[in-house]
Amino acid sequence: MSALDKILPQLRGVKSRGHGRWMAHCPAHDDKTPSLSIAEGADGRILLRCFADCSAAEIMDSIGLSMSDLYEGPIAHQLRPIGKAGRRLINEGDALRLLPGDLALIAIVGCDMVKGKPPSAELHDRLLLAVGRCVLIADEATR
To answer: Are strands 46-50 and 36-40 parallel, antiparallel or unpaired?
Structure first.
């Protein structure tokens, strides 16, 4: 049984968003509209992103699975650290899929700052992660 076959049946309101991508209600919080993004990485691992900021561990725990259920086997490549100490980033292909959202976040925070509204600590952390992914993509593109 693949990692995807273990996880998708445990989620509510799963809808395809294109090849290897889905949205669903997050089981880790009282989700009235789908806020959980599910993507299948190039190496078969499952990537979870809750836009209400539930962690992957919280999501997996709430459906009775472990973090190891996100992977079918050992990860073949080295994940690189980025952003805050200890945070890890997904591979470059998955980062590219996140690029439009990262750029939108950067633009929104920039507009708010021009208006004199500084970002919250949480938004600041998300901004640093988004900028870090953009830098990683630029670095990979210039190799």
So the answer is: antiparallel
